[in-house]
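Page 37, continued from 36.
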């Protein structure tokens, strides 16, 4: 598509690709500005469900006006291919910052990253993400896919949240079974991984995982395959930050543990509350203690068997409203 003109956008180069589309840098010939155009892949244009997800992304993002959220300009269609025109951010994804790689809008598939960030930078980034999420939550929008690949950092250090492809407008219809596999398992909350109701506190969990990863370079819940990761998320305590070879202030670990509380009512009640804790770690709300087994918890094998049956039946893909 490079060199073509779509509506009043002249396409300059391809700058990235993700599960729901390809992204191109383009010139807005009317307003004389650079924009990012995200296209639904041609092979998916006949899939009504994929089109619906793509349109929901535009509708959710267009309802938001915040400095920490990528601005959506318009949605259109060109020769049967749907696209979203949005602001172009000159910078890198948070994933690329952590891993030390270069480029923009590239969705690195590997979840484990080797280069943790300085703690002051971590807190600044997390506060900005919290601010953007607070604006979305105020409009009843849950992102549902917060991860480093979906966080852009511009050349001035400003955070921009993108890719509302899995966003859910409260009151909208149920999403489909395919949505489960589209979310990155390592960042899913316990309720999301089990197919239960998702609310803003699920985003707080995911941001807690991102916080952990920025600090340590690793992930708090691990496994050799998706079901094993979900088992760890639901049943196991996070891998202590100290085991990653980093000396982390107890107040920061307390904040992360509160984000990663298994019961959503034990997490920060809002993104604003989390931002407040990050601004004043010493005065942050105490984290919940890891729950002790009550003897009724499923064994690992039983849990994985039940989860596999849920996946096969399609129940897990329906994130209830």
């Amino acid at each position: 598509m490079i060199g073509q003109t779509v509506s009043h956008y002249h396409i300059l180069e391809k700058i990235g690709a993700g599960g729901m589309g390809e992204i191109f840098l383009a010139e807005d010939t009317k307003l004389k500005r650079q924009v990012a155009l995200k296209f639904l892949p041609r092979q998916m244009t006949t899939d009504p469900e994929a089109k619906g997800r793509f349109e929901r992304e535009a509708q959710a993002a267009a309802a938001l006006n915040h400095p920490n959220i990528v601005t959506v300009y318009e949605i259109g269609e060109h020769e049967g291919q749907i696209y979203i025109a949005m602001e172009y951010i000159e910078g890198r994804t948070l994933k690329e910052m952590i891993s030390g790689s270069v480029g923009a809008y590239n969705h690195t598939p590997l979840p484990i990253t080797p280069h943790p960030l300085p703690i002051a930078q971590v807190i600044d980034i997390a506060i900005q993400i919290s601010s953007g999420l607070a604006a979305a939550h105020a409009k009843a929008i849950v992102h549902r896919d917060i991860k480093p690949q979906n966080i852009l950092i511009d050349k001035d250090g400003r955070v921009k949240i993108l890719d509302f492809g899995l966003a859910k407008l409260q009151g909208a219809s149920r999403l489909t079974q395919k949505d489960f596999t589209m979310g990155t398992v390592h960042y899913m909350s316990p309720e999301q991984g089990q197919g239960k109701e998702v609310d803003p506190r699920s985003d707080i969990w995911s941001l807690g995982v991102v916080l952990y990863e920025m600090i340590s370079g690793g992930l708090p819940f691990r496994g050799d395959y998706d079901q094993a990761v979900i088992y760890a998320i639901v049943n196991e305590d996070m891998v202590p930050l100290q085991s990653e070879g980093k000396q982390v202030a107890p107040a920061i670990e307390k904040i992360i543990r509160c984000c990663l509380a298994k019961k959503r009512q034990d997490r920060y009640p809002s993104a604003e509350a989390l931002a407040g804790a990050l601004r004043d770690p010493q005065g942050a709300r105490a984290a919940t203690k890891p729950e002790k087994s009550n003897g009724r918890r499923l064994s690992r094998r039983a849990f994985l068997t039940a989860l596999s049956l849920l996946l096969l039946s399609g129940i897990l893909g329906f994130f209830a409203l």
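Residues 107-113, 286-296, 312-321 have pLDDT under 50 and may be disordered. Flag for discussion at group meeting. The two ends are 38 Å apart (CA to CA).
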